[in-house]
Amino acid sequence: HGEVWRAVRSDDARQKQLILKRLHAGSAGMLAGLRERHFGERLRGTPHVARFEDAFEHGGSLWLVFVDEGFSLHDLLYTSSRESGGGAVVVQPSPFWLQLRQASGQAVLRHILRQSFDGLARTHALNITHRDLKPSNVIVCSTCTAAPDAPSAEAE
């Protein structure tokens, strides 16, 4: 549904790291983007939910702005490479995934799951259902875990 960009807010002395999502007018993703903006505003300040900053329209596109919290769980769990000769992309478990499967990684896994479930419980308490929870929609950072990207969030 559109494009995703990493950005730095240059007019901010702190050089705030941001994620920009661009949704093109007339695309199927535009309606999802409008829902994501609505729920982003409703969930603003909710712990363990992606920090929605702003939304604006420019050049016929809807732009959604979120705080850049880290990397997706998918990016941490898997590595990908092309087969020799430019063939298919091969996805394999990452070293992080292998660590989680060891006894020493269980506390990290529980921490990620606990924060993810807490964010979901808080959204459900507001009668909002995510509808698209998957590793690429869970952001992991050193101090938090957030369930971002609520384009298909739906009021119950």
Main attributes?
156 residues; alpha+beta; Transferase(Phosphotransferase), domain 1; four-stranded antiparallel sheet; 4 helices; globular; disordered C terminus
Describe the structure in your own words:
This protein has 156 residues and is of the alpha+beta class. It has a single domain (3-155), classed as Transferase(Phosphotransferase), domain 1 (Orthogonal Bundle), CATH 1.10.510.10. The chain has 4 helices and 11 strands; from the N terminus they run ββαβββαββααββββ. The strands form 4 sheets. The protein has a 4-stranded antiparallel beta sheet, covered by helices on one side. It has a 3-stranded antiparallel beta sheet with strand order 5-9-10. A two-stranded antiparallel ribbon has the order 6-7. The longest helix has 20 residues, at 106-125. The radius of gyration is 17 Å and the shape is globular. The protein starts with a strand and ends with a strand. One of its GO terms (molecular function) is ATP binding. InterPro entries: Kinase-like_dom_sf, Prot_kinase_dom, Ser/Thr_kinase_AS. Pfam families: Pkinase (PF00069).
Summarize the structure.
With 156 residues, the protein is of the alpha+beta class. The protein has a single domain, classed as Transferase(Phosphotransferase), domain 1 (Orthogonal Bundle). The radius of gyration is 17 Å and the shape is globular.
Summarize the helices and strands and which ones pair or pack.
Layout: E1 3-8, E2 17-24, H1 28-42, E3 52-58, E4 61-67, E5 71-72, H2 73-77, E6 78-82, E7 89-93, H3 95-100, H4 106-125, E8 128-129, E9 139-140, E10 145-146, E11 154-155
Antiparallel strand pairs: 1-2, 2-4, 3-4, 5-9, 6-7, 8-11, 9-10
